[in-house]
Every structure is written in structure tokens, then in C-alpha cells.
């Protein structure tokens, strides 16, 4: 067999050009390291852009802030307090200009399929591009593949999904785009529906959405299969900014569906999820046109070219960030990122449920909210966990330590983004785009410090990474400002909302 071959050399090779990988490559190159970025797709951004996620949640600091500012300056975002929404197509180009601008060499259309290790070090990664074998040799490797592909191939310990749910991952969501939605008309119909329920004396936690009501009608009329109706209960829409000439009446909406019982590294199951969601997309369009005011002329125009996997494989690293850390808003000396959002677990097996809490054995020492486990079998079909339900406190935030991006066993690898070292529940919260970018930024910095100090990532003092981020990169990890300061000032009585998160009255 004849295989043509190309060999590349770099100080740092980043595998995966998602939000985390781009951020890692940018900071590595800015720190003066010769950096190469390998990406399977033909554009950057991964789930955030090619998966159409289009939301930039998390604490916007460092590279995440820079990206948001650039998008905002071009009018390509809709700034909301917790999750700016952006135009995913233009975001690919903005990220690319940031990566190229930092001096990174990009290789697109290339899939890493194996690694060669020697004495616990990765010597090279092997990739494939249209019949050509690509070999990339580097001193440090950063796995930004979202699936910990490099870590797993190198033999670093990894975990999958949630043990409580037979190892299934969170429900996954393929996104599509719908055009020609008269959103004002739809919003008015939704408001009317809520007003009617209030007038009928229906209590807040028993009220339904208009979408849900229309799904029930479609089901009763035989226009929607039963299991699809159950799946669509968890569907949702998001307005895409920057695209529409008539922003009142003719809008583009991002539509989000769900597949359950997901095994996110199994080719047959991944295909099953996609086939199922393709049918959902087809049926959705028929349903919108017939049942939803303002959606009469709606058309699906595009389907994301990455399946919306919320989690798959993740490393078990030097520190496993836990649901308890998140709920208790724990702080770390070697912090590389801050997180002030909530648990967001799309139930692995039960359509329509989102879990905003984690179960812990005992209440943590921080400022989280705990109550004895009360969940029913919808939440935990295989048995109610003992202990406490823990929710995050909207008044505070937690920190992510450096050690979560350092895998065990392999000595020249960092793992960033949604496959870093966290337990299932914690990852359900912390996998936000801004946090992924922060983990990437820290890895680029850490690679520089390892090279300078002649130490392996495991031996690098994480406090040095923290200090470099603060003093050299200007990431204000030690300053309480903006939204974090506002959170601290919140007052009122806390309660568990019908949506299972903590709110203040
Ligand atoms: C449905 C859904 C909704 C979400 N909503 C939000 C939200 O509203 N706000 C928010 O902030 N976050 C949200 N998230 C989370 C967030 O989008 C992701 O966690 C984040 O984008 C992951 O970034 P990443 O860089 O770690 O991984 P990815 O974006 O998955 O990037 C991995 C990259 O690696 C490449 N790659 C993989 N394997 C290889 C290989 N072998 N060789 C070469 N390249 C490879 C992929 O092509 C990809 O580009 C959502 C996620 C999902 C799935």
C-alpha cells in the first residue's frame, strides 16, 4: 500500500479547533511558542459554531472576552446578562482571524486517528487528510477534541457519561435554523396564552408553554408521533442575531431538539441519534407551519454539521472537579477560570427534564443550597440517590483549578474544554463556551511555563499559571467586578424555583 506522508514540527500541537482549542492555540502562540492547530472540520469553533450552539455563557474573561468584544463590535451578538447569543457563521471567521493573528498555523480537514507514545510522552500524533498521512511532532500536545480523543488514544484514564444512568451521557441536541418566523406574532400568542392561564387561576408552577399546548394538539390530531411529542417538549428556540433585515417580523430562529440514551463515542449510537433528530427536524417544520402562530411560513434552511453532544468522554485528571465544588462555590489557589452559572443537565433518559441540581453525600462548606433528596423516579428512574440535592447559589461563583486540565499518566499533554477533568454533574454546568475558552487559555500559558521551567505539566505549580494569567495576560481572576459584584449584592429570600434552580424573591 502506498501512502503519501507529510511531517510537521511544532512546540505545541493543539488537536481540535473548538472554542477551547482555539483559545489554547492563541495563548500558546502569544506566549511565543511555535503552535499548530489541527481541525477535522473546515472552520473553527466546534460545537459553538459548527454545532450552532451560538451562545457564549460563562464568565467572560481573557480570550472569551476578547472574542465577545470582537463579535459585539461587528454587531454580531445579542448581549444578554448570562449568555450573549452570536451569529455562528461569522464567529467561525472571527475566531479564525484571532488564531491566525496570534501566529498559529492551522491545518484544516484533518482527523487525528492515533498517537505514538514513549515513556509516557506523546512523540507524535498521526492524522489523515484525504489519502495523505500527516505526522505531527511536538513537545507539548493540547487535546481540545471535546471527546478527549488524544488522551484516550494515549492511554490516559477517562470516564464516560453518568454511572447513575447506566453510563449514558446528557441528552444530545442537533440544532437547525428556521427562517421566516414572525416572532412578534408568536410572542404575542405566547403572552396571550400565559394571560389566559393567569385569568383561569392556574398557579405559576402548573402553567404550560404555548409550544407545549400546540404539541399536545398535534398529538391528539395524529399529526405527531407520541415519542416525538415527548422529545419536542424539551425543544426550544433562540433568535439568531445579525441575519434578518426585518427584526420584528421575519426572524431566523435556532431550533433545538433532543435525543436520549446517548452513547457519545459509539458510531452506531451516534448515527441513531442523528437519524432520529433528522426525522424530528422534518416533522418540526410541518408542525410549525400548521400549529404555531407566526410560524406559518417557517422553513428549515440548515442543519448543524456537528451533533450537539453535551458530554462524551472526559479525563480523570490530577483533580476531578466535582458537583460539590460547584455547588459549594469552592475556590482554589491554582484557579484558571471562574464559573457563576448553574447545573444544566439535560436528563440522560427522560424527555423533557432538565436537572439544575446534583446529589451530594453531605452539604459542602461553601454557599450552596442543599435539601434532603426529594427527587422522584422521573429524575432518577433507577433509584433515588441518598444524601442531598445541591444547587448553585446565584449570589456566588466557583473557581476551576489548573490540575483539572492535567491528565494522569501522560507527561506532555493538557486536556481542555468539555472533556477536562470533572464529574458528570459538574461538567453539566461548567462546560460553557467561556469556561472552555478559559481552560484552553490556561493550557497555552502552562505549556510556556513548563518549557521555561523544564517541568512536566503535573509538576508545574498551578499557582504560577494563575499568576501568569492575572499579571501577564490581564485575566482579572482575583477581581470582583461587573456581574460577579452584582451577584454579591443580591438580596431577598432564596427558594427552589419550579425550574429546579435557586432564585431570589
Ligand atoms: C446542545 C448544546 C447547547 C449548548 N448551549 C450552550 C450555551 O447556550 N452556552 C454555552 O456557553 N455553552 C453551551 N453549550 C456548551 C458548549 O457549546 C460546549 O461545551 C463547548 O462549545 C465545547 O467546546 P470545546 O472546544 O471543548 O469542544 P468542541 O466545540 O466540541 O470542539 C472540538 C473540536 O475538535 C475537533 N476534533 C475532534 N476530534 C478531532 C480529531 N480526532 N482530529 C481533529 N479534530 C478533531 C472537532 O471537529 C471540534 O472542532 C451547549 C452545548 C450543546 C451540545
Question: Secondary structure elements and their pairing?
Answer:
Elements: E1 4-15, H1 19-30, E2 35-38, H2 63-73, E3 77-78, E4 85-86, H3 88-101, E5 105-107, E6 111-118, E7 121-129, E8 132-143, H4 149-154, E9 158-160, E10 175-181, H5 183-199, H6 210-220, H7 226-232, E11 236-239, E12 251-256, H8 267-291, E13 299-303, E14 313-315, H9 323-327, E15 335-339, E16 345-346, E17 354-355, E18 358-360, E19 369-372, E20 388-391, E21 398-401, E22 413-415, H10 424-430, H11 433-453, H12 462-471, H13 482-489, E23 494-496, E24 502-504
Parallel strand pairs: 1-2, 1-8, 2-5, 8-22
Antiparallel strand pairs: 3-4, 6-7, 7-8, 9-14, 10-12, 10-13, 11-12, 15-21, 16-17, 18-20, 19-20, 23-24
Helix pairs in contact: 1-3, 1-11, 11-12
Bound molecules: flavin-adenine dinucleotide.
Task: Characterise the protein shown here.
- Helix content is 30%, strand content 22%.
- The strands form eight sheets. Strands 1, 2, 5, 6, 7, 8 and 22 form a seven-stranded mixed beta sheet that branches. The chain has a four-stranded antiparallel beta sheet with strand order 11-12-10-13, covered by helices on one side. Strands 18-20-19 form a three-stranded antiparallel beta sheet.
- The radius of gyration is 23 Å and the shape is globular.
- With 505 residues, it is an alpha+beta fold.
- The model has no long low-confidence stretch (mean pLDDT 94).
- The structure holds flavin-adenine dinucleotide (FAD).
- Flavin-adenine dinucleotide binds at residues 15-21, 38-41, 46-48, 51, 53, 55-58, 83, 111-112, 144-146, 149, 173, 308-310, 417-418, 431-433, 436.
Amino acid at each position: 500500500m502506498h501512502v503519501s506522508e507529510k511531517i510537521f514540527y511544532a512546540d505545541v500541537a493543539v488537536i481540535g479547533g473548538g472554542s477551547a482549542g482555539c483559545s489554547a492555540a492563541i495563548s500558546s502562540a502569544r506566549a511565543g511558542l511555535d503552535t499548530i492547530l489541527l481541525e477535522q472540520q473546515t472552520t473553527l469553533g466546534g460545537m459553538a459554531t459548527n454545532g450552532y450552539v451560538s451562545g457564549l455563557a460563562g464568565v467572560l474573561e481573557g480570550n472569551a472576552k476578547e472574542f465577545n468584544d470582537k463579535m459585539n463590535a461587528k454587531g454580531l451578538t445579542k448581549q444578554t446578562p448570562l449568555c450573549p447569543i452570536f451569529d455562528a457563521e461569522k464567529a467561525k471567521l472571527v475566531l479564525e482571524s484571532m488564531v491566525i493573528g496570534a501566529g498559529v498555523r492551522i491545518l484544516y480537514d484533518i482527523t487525528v486517528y492515533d498517537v505514538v507514545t514513549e515513556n509516557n510522552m506523546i512523540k507524535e500524533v498521526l492524522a489523515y487528510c484525504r489519502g495523505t498521512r500527516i505526522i505531527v511532532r511536538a513537545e507539548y500536545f493540547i487535546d481540545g477534541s471535546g471527546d478527549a480523543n488524544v488522551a484516550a488514544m494515549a492511554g490516559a484514564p477517562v470516564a464516560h457519561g453518568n454511572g447513575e444512568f447506566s453510563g449514558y451521557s446528557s441528552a444530545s441536541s442537533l440544532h437547525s435554523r428556521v427562517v421566516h418566523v414572525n416572532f412578534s406574532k408568536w410572542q404575542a400568542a405566547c403572552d396571550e396564552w400565559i394571560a389566559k392561564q393567569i385569568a383561569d387561576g392556574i398557579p405559576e408552577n402548573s402553567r404550560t408553554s404555548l409550544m407545549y399546548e400546540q404539541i399536545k394538539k398535534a398529538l391528539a390530531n395524529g399529526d405527531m408521533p407520541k415519542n416525538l411529542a415527548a422529545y419536542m417538549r424539551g425543544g426550544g428556540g433562540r433568535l439568531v442575531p445579525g441575519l434578518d433585515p426585518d427584526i420584528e417580523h421575519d426572524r431566523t430562529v435556532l431550533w433545538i431538539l433532543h435525543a436520549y440514551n446517548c452513547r457519545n463515542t459509539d458510531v452506531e449510537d451516534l448515527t441513531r441519534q442523528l437519524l432520529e433528530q433528522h426525522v424530528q427536524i422534518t416533522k418540526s417544520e410541518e408542525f410549525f407551519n400548521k400549529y404555531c402562530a407566526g410560524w406559518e411560513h417557517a422553513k428549515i434552511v440548515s442543519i448543524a454539521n456537528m451533533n450537539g453532544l453535551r458530554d462524551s468522554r472526559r479525563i480523570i485528571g490530577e483533580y476531578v472537579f466535582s458537583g460539590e465544588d460547584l455547588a459549594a462555590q469552592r475556590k482554589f489557589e491554582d484557579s484558571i477560570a471562574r464559573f457563576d452559572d448553574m447545573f444544566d443537565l439535560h436528563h440522560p433518559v427522560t424527555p423533557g427534564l432538565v436537572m439544575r441540581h446534583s446529589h451530594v453525600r453531605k452539604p459542602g462548606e461553601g454557599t450552596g443550597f442543599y435539601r434532603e433528596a426529594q427527587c422522584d423516579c422521573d429524575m432518577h428512574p433507577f433509584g433515588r440517590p441518598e444524601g442531598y440535592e445541591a444547587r448553585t447559589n446565584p449570589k456566588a461563583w466557583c473557581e476551576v483549578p489548573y490540575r483539572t486540565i492535567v491528565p494522569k499518566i501522560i507527561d506532555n499533554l493538557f486536556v481542555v474544554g468539555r472533556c477536562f477533568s470533572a464529574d458528570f454533574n459538574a461538567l453539566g454546568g461548567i462546560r460553557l463556551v467561556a469556561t472552555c475558552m478559559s481552560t484552553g487559555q490556561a493550557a497555552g500559558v502552562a505549556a510556556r511555563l513548563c518549557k521555561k521551567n523544564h517541568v512536566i505539566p503535573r509538576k508545574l505549580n498551578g499557582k504560577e499559571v494563575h499568576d501568569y494569567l492575572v499579571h501577564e495576560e490581564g485575566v482579572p481572576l482575583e477581581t470582583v467586578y461587573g456581574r460577579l459584584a452584582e451577584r454579591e449584592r443580591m438580596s431577598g429570600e432564596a427558594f427552589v424555583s419550579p425550574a429546579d434552580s435557586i432564585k431570589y424573591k
